[in-house]
């Protein structure tokens, strides 16, 4: 199969609609990361996502719809606060998990009676979803466990030959996946942190909690148990209070002739001496640059030495959730 990368225009939109209706896969940009889309009402189409990614079959998918799509045709809205959240944050990087009406196929939610839905805000995602005008199941457009893609080139590098079309919308601005929020409960529960934070949700509806404990998170959101986001180079993660150890490890790797880089944010640059992939200053900037830099690292490094991110923002939690999984293999 020949994988095409096309800018979004009348031709590529028409082509993508034809592919989706033919139960094929289309990768498309969103404001978080690139998604790998399939028609959510077709079991045959959704299965192709799992095959192309090598995704475990118990890791449910998020359904994406355009901003005028009637979400209540797919799910039950059980609590009054949900409307407020929809008004405040949609379209945007907030996925909500509802009780499903069973309209999309079972494979999407891996047999759970819930359905995760997101309305992405990026112009390109909206154009694609409006043109197709159907619920689109879409995980990140990478091979399972690898770093999520934030450019069409990243998607191509992982899925070349496995999918027909990548819609190109440049670099994704948000840079990490959406917040996943369970709204089937009295109090909304964060299953995966993202750019929409607990505090932001509390400001709108007065209540929000993080799922507590690993087993609760895994039970409610099976995908969270898998390793994720790993670049194809050796990695190590150091905390802020072990910067000297990080420097020693760096020096040791360089001595062994390994191409070595630090991955860190502005605030710690002055404490380190060596090659740096700089994530930037603010938490939103760091999130936006995170996967891009992890994927740069695998081109230029043998060893990537990541440093804990602590800017004082609540988004640090989401960044560290991704970074500690990406560099899990060698936490120092
Ligand atoms: P990905 O699409 O790879 O970014 O991952 C989707 C995330 O959403 C995973 O963490 C899933 O566990 C979670 N998710 C998707 N559908 C559901 C659902 N019905 N209930 C709980 N979590 C879900
Ligand atoms: Mg993913």
Distinct helical segment count: 10
Instruction: List unreliable stretches of 5+ residues.
Output: none
The major sheet is characterized as: 12 strands, mixed
Distance N to C terminus: 42 Å
- Overall pLDDT level: 95
Bound molecules: adenosine monophosphate, magnesium ion
TL;DR?
This protein has 332 residues and is α/β, with parallel strands linked by helices.
Walk me through the structure.
The protein is an alpha/beta fold and 332 residues long. The chain has 2 domains: 4-220, DHBP synthase (Alpha-Beta Complex), CATH 3.90.870; 234-326, Threonylcarbamoyl-AMP synthase, C-terminal domain (Rossmann fold), CATH 3.40.50. The protein has 10 helices and 16 strands. Strands 1, 2, 3, 4, 5, 6, 7, 8, 9, 10, 11 and 12 form a 12-stranded mixed beta sheet that branches. Strand 11, helix 6 (198-205) and strand 12 (209-210) form a beta-alpha-beta unit. The protein is globular. The N and C termini lie far apart (42 Å). 48% of the residues are buried. The chain binds adenosine monophosphate (AMP) and magnesium ion. Magnesium ion is lined by residues 139-140, 148.
Descriptive tags:
about 325 residues; DHBP synthase; Rossmann fold; 2 domains; twelve-stranded mixed sheet; 10 helices; about 20% strand; binds adenosine monophosphate; binds magnesium ion
């Amino acid at each position: 199969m020949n994988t095409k990368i096309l800018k979004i225009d009348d031709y590529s939109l028409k082509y993508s609609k034809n592919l989706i209706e033919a139960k094929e896969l289309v990768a498309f940009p969103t404001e978080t990361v690139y998604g790998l889309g399939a028609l959510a009402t077709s079991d045959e189409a959704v299965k192709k996502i799992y095959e192309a990614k090598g995704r475990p079959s118990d890791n449910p998918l998020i359904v994406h719809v355009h901003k005028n799509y009637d979400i209540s045709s797919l799910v039950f809205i059980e609590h009054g606060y949900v409307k407020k959240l929809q008004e405040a944050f949609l379209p945007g990087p907030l996925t909500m998990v509802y009780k499903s009406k069973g309209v999309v196929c079972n494979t999407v939610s891996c047999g759970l009676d819930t359905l995760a839905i997101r309305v992405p805000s990026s112009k390109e995602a909206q154009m694609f979803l409006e043109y197709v005008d159907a619920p689109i199941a879409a995980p990140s457009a990478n091979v399972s466990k690898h770093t999520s893609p934030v450019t069409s080139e990243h998607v191509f590098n992982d899925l070349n030959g496995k999918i027909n079309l990548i819609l190109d919308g440049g670099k994704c601005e948000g840079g990490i996946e959406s917040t996943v929020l369970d709204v089937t409960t009295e109090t909304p529960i964060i299953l995966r942190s993202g750019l929409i934070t607990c505090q932001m949700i509390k400001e709108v509806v007065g209540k929000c909690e993080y799922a507590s404990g690993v087993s609760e998170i895994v039970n409610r959101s099976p995908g969270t148990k898998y390793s994720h986001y790993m670049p194809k180079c050796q990695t190590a993660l150091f905390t802020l209070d072990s910067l000297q150890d990080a420097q020693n490890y760096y020096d040791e790797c360089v001595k062994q002739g390994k191409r070595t880089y630090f991955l860190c944010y502005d605030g710690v640059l002055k404490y380190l001496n060596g090659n740096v992939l700089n994530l930037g200053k603010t938490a939103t900037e760091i999130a936006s640059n995170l996967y891009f830099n992890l994927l740069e690292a695998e081109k230029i490094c043998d060893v990537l030495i990541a440093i804990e991110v602590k800017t004082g923002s609540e988004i640090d939690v989401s960044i560290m959730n991704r970074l500690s999984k990406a560099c899990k293999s060698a936490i120092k």
